[in-house]
Amino acid sequence: MRTIARAVFSRVLILALVVAAFSMVSATAEAQAPYTFTVIAESPGCARFCEGHLPGLAMNARGTVAFLGCLGAEPDRRCGIFTGRGGPLTLIAGLTAFPGNGIADNGPFTTLNIPSINSFGTVAFYGCHTTQGCGLFTGVGGAPTLVVGTGGPFSDVGASGGWAPGISSDGELAFQGCLTTGECGIFFMNRRGRINMIAEGGALAMNDDGVVAFLASGGLYTSRRGRAPVFVADVRFPQGFIATNIPAISGDGDVAFLSCFVPGCSPSDAAIFAGRAGHHAARLFVDAATFGGFVMAPAIDADGTVSFYGCRADDCGIFTGPDPVVDVVVQESGPLLGATVGSVCCFGPPFVLALDNQIINRGRIAFAASLSDGRRVIVRADPVRSRR
């Protein structure tokens, strides 16, 4: 597990380094209706190679954003998993010193991966602890708790290569792992600590009600609180696509996913669909041809709103519908926080498109962007209609 975790961390650490020198200052400004924008964390620059990488983001129903990143400047940069809503940040899990990269000691973890967060602010993540070993941890601030470790029935926890586990509002957990018997897949742990294997699946998403969405055997499935999976739709992943296809699930159990109309399509022919287990066939939300570019990385809200990452011509951004003008949330070359957006989703040209799917909740959308004035920011977009 340490070999896998260190390999994953080498990738994720690069993501983390781009979030250097975050100030613990809230800044809210209206850029373009119907959203206001709150800075969760900010970096004045990138001291290391950072093109195309995204800090792993997750957001709960209260607008708290969890991310993997670094604070301060070299040689006193301190890295780990943090949470924030626009004010002071809370350290959830800190990384040990890495002097060669200007990282000072910030805690007992040698590796950390992308977090997830439930409605009460509890964060779940994979990591390797200097004394407790590797596994699945939870935390709210203070000392994190090792929930499932390597040893006993598990030879590996978090075998997916860095994608986030899931955590419900009741503290139920969904995670990827491998048993000492050789079986690997998605596992569910209830509030009493009982663990059962759901399926031999890939990347997963979990909502606050404990419903897990995942891909397996060419299809999308959901499982409620560890029960037998229910088929939702066939999924045909585009050939040559450079991103991991992670399904999204809302608080109401609706799912959104990327697929092709026919097998073997190119990324420019892909589409985003939405549906629910046991209902009619999944509905088309947006296709690349209608949008005029390519679409990927959907997220879905409880009211059925789907957000996604899309590109047209030379500009990419986050959108909530097929109209790139009316449905834009933030877009390259557009205004944001008194500057012009240089890139959305990634700090640099997005040749690595790694988007988490817990980025929309109650109309709020979390994203990372670089700005024309040199700032690199993690931002929460709040719809004006929901503000009081």
Number of strands: 33
Number of domains: 1
CATH homology superfamily name: Prolyl oligopeptidase, N-terminal domain
Sheet-strand content, in percent, reads 35-45%
Name of the CATH architecture: 7 Propeller
Sheet having the most strands: 7 strands, antiparallel
- What would you report as the Rg, rounded to the nearest angstrom? 19 Å
Mean pLDDT figure: 81
Question: What is the distance, rounded to the nearest whole angstrom, between the alpha carbons of the first and last residues?
Answer: 48 Å
Task: Specify the helix fraction band.
Answer: under 10%
Task: Give an overview in words.
- The chain is mostly beta strands and 388 residues long.
- It has a single domain, classed as Prolyl oligopeptidase, N-terminal domain (Methylamine Dehydrogenase, Chain H).
- 5% of the residues lie in helices and 44% in strands.
- It contains two helices and 33 strands.
- Strands 1, 2, 29, 30, 31, 32 and 33 form a seven-stranded antiparallel sheet that branches.
- A hairpin with a 2-residue loop joins strand 18 and strand 19 (219-224).
- The model is unreliable at 1-32, 44-53 and 347-357 (pLDDT under 50).
Q: What topology does this entry show?
A:
Layout: H1 2-17, E1 28-30, E2 35-43, E3 57-59, E4 65-71, E5 78-84, E6 90-94, E7 109-112, E8 116-117, E9 123-129, E10 133-139, E11 145-149, E12 154-157, E13 166-167, E14 173-179, E15 184-189, E16 195-199, E17 204-206, E18 211-216, E19 219-224, E20 230-234, E21 248-249, E22 255-259, E23 271-275, E24 283-287, H2 288-291, E25 294-300, E26 306-312, E27 315-319, E28 328-331, E29 335-336, E30 339-344, E31 360-361, E32 364-371, E33 376-383
Antiparallel strand pairs: 1-2, 2-33, 3-4, 4-5, 5-6, 7-9, 8-9, 9-10, 10-11, 12-14, 13-14, 14-15, 15-16, 17-18, 18-19, 19-20, 21-22, 22-23, 23-24, 25-26, 26-27, 27-28, 29-30, 30-32, 31-32, 32-33
